[in-house]
Amino acid sequence: MESFKAFDAAQAITLGDLTLESDESQLALYGKLTLLADAASQERLDHLIALLTQARADLAAAIARGDTPDPGPDKPLPSVKNPFA
Amino acid sequence: MLRRPGWLPLLLLLILIALVVWFYLNPAQSPQNLPSPAPSAEAPAPDHGPVAASDAACGDNLYQGARPDLPGKLAQGLVSVCYQGYASASSPISRTPMWSAEHLTPGRIAQARATERASAFYPEPSLDADMRGELADYRRSGLDRGHLSPSGDMPGHEEQRQSFSLANIAPQNSQLNRGPWSDLESHLRDYVQSKGEIWVVTGVLFLGETINTTPDGRVMVPSSFWKAVLVPGRGALVFVAPNKDGGRIDRVSLADFTQRTGITPFPRLDAPSQTQIVLGDF
Question: Residues 65..84 of A with a Cβ closer than 8 Å to B: which?
Fold first, then answer.
C-alpha cells in the first residue's frame, strides 16, 4: 500500500479518479470513485478505508500539536504589474 | 668512425613499447572523465530527473513533435522540461509552467485508473532556484498546487511522481481545481477510454493590468487556466476557466483561442482543423 500522511508535507494519493490531497494545513478529497461488485473494488475500498482511518489519526495528532497553520492568507494576496501585458 | 652497438635498436624499441603501454594505461583525463561535483545541499540529485529537453526527448507528448507557439512576452525565457508523462515549459518570470502537454491513449488511461499512487510535490531540480517555484511559496496562499497535466493521467508510479514536480504546477483556485477542472480532467479520461486517443495541452493565462502573487511575492497566480484538446481526424476544442471561485469553463475553437491569446497549442495542425470544433463530443 502506498504511504500517505495527512497534515504533513504537501502530497497526494490517487485512487481511480478520486484524489486525497494534503499539506500542513488541510486535507481535501475530490474527484470520483466508482466501485463495482468485484474483488478489485473491494480491495480499493479497503485501501480507502485504511487511508481515511490513518487520516483520522493524523488529524488527531495535528489537533494535539496545536500548531496547524490556517490554509488561507491572513491578508489579501499581493499583486504586481502584469509583466506579460 | 664509431661503431654503433648492435643492442641499441632493440633497447630503443623496448623503450618505445613501454611508453605506448604507459600512455594506454594512463590516458589524459578528458572533461567526461573528471569526477562530478557533489550535488549541492539545496538541490539534491533526484532519481526522477527529466530527460534531455530536446523535441525528440519530449517525444510522444507533443502533437507531431511541435511545442505550442506562444507570443513574445509569454515565451520570454521559457525553459523546457520533458518527462515521460508530459512535456512542459517553465517561465522564469511567473515561476510557473506556461503549458504542459500530454498524449492520452486508452491503454495509458486504463493503466492510470488501475494504479493507486501516492506522491509528494517537489521543486523542479533541473531549473535554477531563482527561476522556479518552491513549496514554501504556496504556504498560506489559500491556493491549490494545480496540476497542468493531471496526476490522474499518469500510467505508472514514475510518471505520477514526475507529475508532482512544480514544473507541472501552478497556483490554482481550490474551488476550480477540486470542482469543475477536476471534472473536466475526469471527463477527458472517460472520453479517451470510450473513443480513443487525444492530445492535450494545458496552460495558464496572465490577463489584466495587475497579477496576484503568492504571499511571498515569488510565484504569479494565473488569471485563467486553459486546456486545448485535439481529437485526431475530428478537430479540436479549448476549455478556458477564470482562476477564481465559481468560475465557469468556457469552450472556444482553437482559432478563436489563438486569435484572443496569440497562443497556438498545436502548431502543426492543418488550418481546417484549427477551426473545426468537436463540441458534440464533449
Answer: 69-74, 77-84
